[in-house]
Design goal:
The C terminus is likely disordered. α4 packs across α5. The protein is built from 6 helices and 13 strands. By secondary structure, it is an alpha+beta fold.
């Protein structure tokens, strides 16, 4: 899914391109992604002007000059693109909005896990699948004490803790793995096993990793439909050498999620399955 650093790049550009534009036509795709909580289907969007585009957790909110708002939830594979109407829509386009400036917004999702939602104006809490939005980890509110409070009485594995959007705004698989690598914490470590030193490193790593990712993507300026991941250190790098210690990256299953980690930089405190690959190669 697009994660926070991705959406912090994409949403301002969507807002710049769409704010003030009137929707002249709607081209719906597969209805399996539609969650229409306002009568009239997607036709209620025609003729409406887009006021602004904002992010809430991992979804995109399109505010309209009507009693209806539009939510686009990218989920696993959702992507956005701005095209001229003459371009033929791709098969994975689940929604296209023609605008009054000869521009079309494409919302694409090849696996059909995303959502196109119409809601009564301002009632974002009705978005299907959108949990309570957790703390903004790049705000002044995210202190070490705030992290300790969130972690109190939590017993799940630490990667699952980071993926809890009701706790944090917001991680996905990639930056959870990158954060745990930066913090030197094994993804299967349980939250109640974290020492005070672990908590300090985790807090610092959360801020450092997400800030670096946001700034890197902003500087690279990729196309809207490109999910930039070339700078990640462990995610999707199984078998490659850790850039810190040159130990091969491994994967582990964490309650239905995959986790990429370095067994040298992120040793399991209980010693399960650790091999010093540097010595083994000698």
């Amino acid at each position: 899914m697009p994660e926070r650093p991705d959406l912090e790049y994409v949403v301002p550009r969507l807002n710049e391109a769409l704010a003030g534009r009137r929707i002249t036509a709607v081209h719906p795709g597969d209805p399996v992604v539609q969650r229409l909580l306002v009568a009239g289907g997607l036709d209620v969007l025609v003729g409406r002007t887009i006021l602004t585009v904002t992010r809430r957790s991992n979804v995109v909110n399109v505010h309209l000059d009507s009693e209806v708002d539009l939510v686009l939830a990218p989920m696993l594979a959702g992507r956005f693109a701005l095209k001229e109407p003459r371009h033929r829509r791709t098969k994975d386009t689940v929604l296209a909005l023609d605008l009054d400036n000869n521009t079309t917004l494409w919302f694409r999702d090849k696996v059909r896990m995303g959502r196109v939602v119409t809601l009564p104006k301002g009632q974002w809490e009705k978005t299907p699948g959108l949990p309570k939005v957790g703390i903004d980890v790049l705000s002044d509110a995210f202190t070490l004490d705030a992290l300790r409070t969130l972690a109190k009485k939590r017993r799940e594995q630490v990667k699952l803790f980071l993926l809890d959007k009701a706790a944090f705004d917001s991680f996905g698989n990639a930056y959870a793995d990158e954060t745990l690598h930066a913090a030197g914490i094994h993804p299967k470590t349980r939250v109640n096993e974290l020492s005070d030193d672990d908590m300090q490193r985790l807090h610092s790593a959360i801020i450092r990793v997400l800030t670096h990712a946001r700034d890197h993507i902003e500087a690279a300026k990729p196309p809207l439909d490109t999910k930039l991941r070339d700078f990640l250190k462990v995610r999707n790098r199984k078998g490659e050498l850790c850039p810190v210690c040159e130990t091969p990256i491994r994967t582990a299953g964490v309650r239905g999620y995959d986790a990429f980690f370095c067994p040298q930089c992120q040793p399991d405190k209980k010693g399960r399955g650790f091999v010093d690959w540097r010595n083994a190669r000698r």
